Amino acid sequence: MQAQAASRPAKQRKSQSERREAFEGYLAISPWLLGLAIFTVGPIIASLYFSFTEYEVVKTPVWIGLANYQRLAGDRLFWQSLKVTGTYVGASVPLGIVLSFAVALLMNQKVRLIGFFRTAYYMPNLVPAVGSAILWIWIFNPEFGLLNTALATIGIKGPLWLGHSKWALPALIIMSLWGVGGGMLIYLAGLQGIPTDLYEAAEVDGATAWRRFVHVTVPQMTPVLFFNLIMGIIGSFQVFTAGYIMTGGGPRYATYFYVLYLYNNAFQYFRMGYASALAWILAVIILFFTLLVFRSSTAWVYYEGQLRGRG
Amino acid sequence: MAQSATARTVRSQGPQASTFLGRRSVQKVLSRVLVYTMLLIGAAILMLPLAWLLSSSLKQSGRIFQVPPQWIPDPVVWGNYAEVWRMIPFGLYVRNTSLITAASIVGALASSSIVAFGFARLRFPGRDALFLILLATIMIPSQVTLIPTYVMFRIVGWLDSYYPLIVPAFFGGGAFNIFLLRQFFMKLPLELDDAARIDGCSTFGIFRRILLPQSRPALGVIAIFLFMGNWNDFFAPLIYLNSPDKYTLALGLNMFRGTQYTAWHLLMAASTMTAIPCMILYFLAQRYFIQGIVFTGIKG
């Protein structure tokens, strides 16, 4: 009896302190919860609604059903921007990953002056996007730019680069590779985190350097590669600044990136409904590729705990 | 690292290496040479555009169109930098950008740390589900929320003001930053909290007096990223700011480009100047910088 009587207030006190903690918890996360409602969930619902309307900002939205999406199907600029962006993602993401991984591998060979190399490779990432866009317009200048004057010294007459519809997109892809230093830092840290006993064990088993690379380094690095592949895809689909500043999407829409088309629709032509439909298509595309990579990951991404668990 | 490097130096200079230069060690030396050569070539390729930027920014206006180009400008025209300040209100842009950047950093640090504290240290119903939602929002492309957000700011009359660029930072400060800080808080020992609580510290007192001071490295990393993100941001200012006197550096630089088709030396000088704060920050806080990049790239 006594024990029961004593435990009841204790229990009450406990649940009171639990309630208090819960209250404080919600209080602590309340800025984010409010932000989630105001800047994420609300706008997502609104933009889905806008995508079914004709909306010119100054007037109220008019419901037009699927008309925006139907128009998209026949919109040549939509397909063109999709093609341009797809090409850009398909080239710059794999090239960027391979190059930055290769540099990280080189740097992981117990290189001296590693601080110098790290800084040298990372430096380009410190130039703001607008600044580097302007710098690269000048580098790609057909007559006086760095690239073509360098090509001229080995007897090659360089192309018009940004001025030619065939070369403008490759030029922007080349420019994107200037940032390999960011990925390199990540892979280098990953490489340095691989336990050395794995290599020692492989060496004892008589594995050659190549086999150690294929059977130790690559599997150990797959989680990092996986994460950076996903972030690379998401980021590259949203490329905007380079196209906006350097080419304005031209020549002949050769660099008309998807988000540039979206931006023009929303903020140049004020077709907010149509732009919302564009935004949703982009979100679905990005989601599709993210899920695709996720689904494929069971086949190629190696997680220590998981594999050990399956034996 | 340093230790293994010296160990190898000793080994390669030791008697074994010099007495019988076997095929293995020749191969080793060759592969070392190859590694350094490739690294140096790569570094040179990446540094060349930067050298070109600097070199062009110091050239006389006519010399910029010289073929083959002069790598070391003659004469060196430092005046190009002063010229930029005369041609555009560079100081004003710096002030505007600094204001936006500083306010956003303060807002994002304050709100992301308190939210991260809630997720890391307090128990409340639905916490894990909410945290999953938080992680999911990292994946949402910003274009999906762009137009309604713009419309919302238009309705409240905030277009052409700094509010759209600053206020959202106070509401969570970015899902990714919350995630990083939460991971950091989780690693701090719970005993710290308990000891403080016994001493009569309130929950938010623990946050302010115990966890925050312990988290300076993590907060520093996040502040660096916030600085880089805000200082360099182009899209949001482009959409929300109209009056030239409210422009940020990125917008001002782009407008300057629109007016100068041939003054490449001035454009290069202006571009160099926008990069300088980022460079200084990198060299001052290199360790945090690298840690942050690595952390965001691996632990994510």
Q: What is the spatial order of strands in the main beta sheet of chain A?
A: 1-2
List segments of chain A where confidence is low: pLDDT < 50 over at least 5 consecutive residues. Answer: 307-311
Largest interface: A-B, 98 and 94 residues
Please write the string of helix (H) and strand (E) elements of chain B. Answer: HHHHHHHHHHHHHHHH
Radius of gyration of chain B: 26 Å
Between the first and last Cα atoms of chain A, what is the distance in angstroms? 54 Å
Named CATH topology of the largest domain in chain A: MetI-like fold
Instruction: State the helix count of chain B.
Output: 16
Q: What sort of overall outline of chain B do the alpha carbons produce when their principal axes are compared?
A: globular
Summed up, the helix count of chain A is 14
Helix content of chain B: over 70%
Overall tally of structural domains of chain A: 2
Structural class, from helix and strand content of chain B? mainly alpha
- Summarize the biggest pleated sheet of chain B: none
Indicate how many domains the architecture of chain B comprises. Answer: 2
Spell out the CATH superfamily of the largest domain in chain B. Answer: MetI-like
The tally of beta strands of chain B, per DSSP, is 0
Compute the average pLDDT of chain A. Answer: 89
Portion of residues in beta strands of chain A equals under 5%
Shape of chain A: flat
Tell me about this structure:
The complex is a heterodimer of chains A (311) and B (300). Chain A has 311 residues and is mainly alpha-helical. Chain A is built from 14 helices and two strands, in the order H-E-E-H-H-H-H-H-H-H-H-H-H-H-H-H. In chain A, strands 1-2 form a two-stranded antiparallel ribbon. With 300 residues, chain B is mostly helical. Chain B has two domains: 2-57; 83-298, Orthogonal Bundle (MetI-like fold). Helix content of chain B is 75%, strand content 0%. Chain B contains 16 helices and no strands. Chain B has helices at residues 2-13, 15-19, 23-57, 79-87, 90-121, 127-139, 143-155, 163-166, 175-187, 190-198, 203-214, 216-232, 235-240, 249-259, 264-284, 286-298. In chain B, helix 3 (23-57) crosses helix 15 (264-284), helix 5 (90-121) crosses helix 9 (175-187) and helix 10 packs across helix 11. Chain B is globular. At the A-B interface, helix 1, helix 3, helix 4, helix 5 and helix 6 of A face helix 1, helix 3, helix 5, helix 6 and helix 7 of B.
